[in-house]
Amino acid sequence: MVTLNVNGRTVEVDSSPDTPLLWALRDDLKLKGTRYGCGAGMCGACTVHIDGQATFSCQMTVGDAEGSEITTIEGLSADGTHVVQQAWIAEQVPQCGYCQSGQIMRAAALLAHNPQPNRQEIVDEMSANLCRCGTYPRIIRAIERAAQEG
């Protein structure tokens, strides 16, 4: 058993400490918003916040996550009213939508640490997350909107 702090709750998962956090979130805790994309830390679909930092959950083990504050897309806002989520809707960002939870989590972490990023800072930070539909211009506009409205 490993004890985790997920979305403000203390939970126990019946996983080996070397299990990727992604699988504990999805399989043990049924938090399906965190997506499996590549399993190699190259796409960002599995991005969550670990102590406020955008982190690939496929690359972190539950043992390494123990003692940290973990926030998933489900914990970002219970009712979908986080400024980034609202900007995503306003800018009509999603196309297929698969990468969006990871994109939103990375964008929220960026704005939490840099409330007024310039366009290049947004591009640099968001380059860690891939969108196979190519909605990058809308992603950038949504982050700029969230920064203005935040």
TrEMBL record:
<protein>
    <submittedName>
        <fullName>(2Fe-2S)-binding protein</fullName>
    </submittedName>
</protein>
<dbReference type="InterPro" id="IPR036010">
    <property type="entry name" value="2Fe-2S_ferredoxin-like_sf"/>
</dbReference>
<dbReference type="InterPro" id="IPR006058">
    <property type="entry name" value="2Fe2S_fd_BS"/>
</dbReference>
<keyword id="KW-0408">Iron</keyword>
<keyword id="KW-0560">Oxidoreductase</keyword>
<dbReference type="InterPro" id="IPR012675">
    <property type="entry name" value="Beta-grasp_dom_sf"/>
</dbReference>
<dbReference type="Pfam" id="PF00111">
    <property type="entry name" value="Fer2"/>
</dbReference>
<dbReference type="InterPro" id="IPR001041">
    <property type="entry name" value="2Fe-2S_ferredoxin-type"/>
</dbReference>
<dbReference type="InterPro" id="IPR051452">
    <property type="entry name" value="Diverse_Oxidoreductases"/>
</dbReference>
<dbReference type="InterPro" id="IPR036884">
    <property type="entry name" value="2Fe-2S-bd_dom_sf"/>
</dbReference>
<keyword id="KW-0001">2Fe-2S</keyword>
<feature type="domain" description="2Fe-2S ferredoxin-type">
    <location>
        <begin position="1"/>
        <end position="76"/>
    </location>
</feature>
<dbReference type="Pfam" id="PF01799">
    <property type="entry name" value="Fer2_2"/>
</dbReference>
<keyword id="KW-0479">Metal-binding</keyword>
<keyword id="KW-0411">Iron-sulfur</keyword>
<dbReference type="InterPro" id="IPR002888">
    <property type="entry name" value="2Fe-2S-bd"/>
</dbReference>
